[in-house]
Amino acid sequence: PRDTIAWGANAQRIIVGKAVDTLPPDLRPFFDENRSYLALHVTDPLDAEAKTPAEKHNHFIYLDRYGRFPYTNLPRVYKAAVSKYGKSKLEQTGLLPWQIGVYSAKLTTSFQLARWDEAKLNAAILAGYVAEAHDPFNTTENFDGHLTLQNGINDRFGAVLIDRFSSFFPLRPNDASFIEDPTDHAFEACLSAHAALETILLADRNARATTKSYNDEYFDHFYNLTAATLIRQLSDASTDVGSYWLTAWTNAGKPAVPQTQPH
Length: 263
Description:
The protein is mainly α. It is 60% helix and 0% strand.
């Protein structure tokens, strides 16, 4: 059973914090004001996953169950995918990109109705899912390395490296930009994350070859081999989270956000 989660909580918090910096001046104050709230609630989907078995399938997509890269067998429109594969296969193989589409729409509605408390919660939850789409191990059946005898690699890559080295990360996300099709964009993010898997699996094997345990030497070596990939995925995730927020707000008609409270 898939009971391991990939990006650790620290990765989620780094991504959501950097995403705020990508926003334009007319939207940013609302997110700036709620930075600590967003950092606290970006992991809500992970907490829900731990408590609710039905939530699990929203956190991943096993692209490799759909033929070969770039997995064109799998329709990106949910109804078309259901009619081709059936609901139970889709649930078993994961719904992550569609879940991003669902929360993108929820956030749009919250903005339209000026429900600001609901908007900040939906923004945090959406950010959590968007972050997950950038974690290579959320896009594969080999989510924890068990198929290649590299058990726990998702945790070593997505949690341990971040806990050890994140103070050195030169994350440079781009400015947020409008996303034409939120679900389609989520599929592209998953594909691009998936394309990084081989690099990470190979790096783990190479780092392991010089040392028999997961010690400092292993992690230094593993980091040297994967830092570029890790930093790119975190930066892209931050850009995308900001872009999803901006898109929902734009699609809602760019409502004026509440003014910052005086402190």
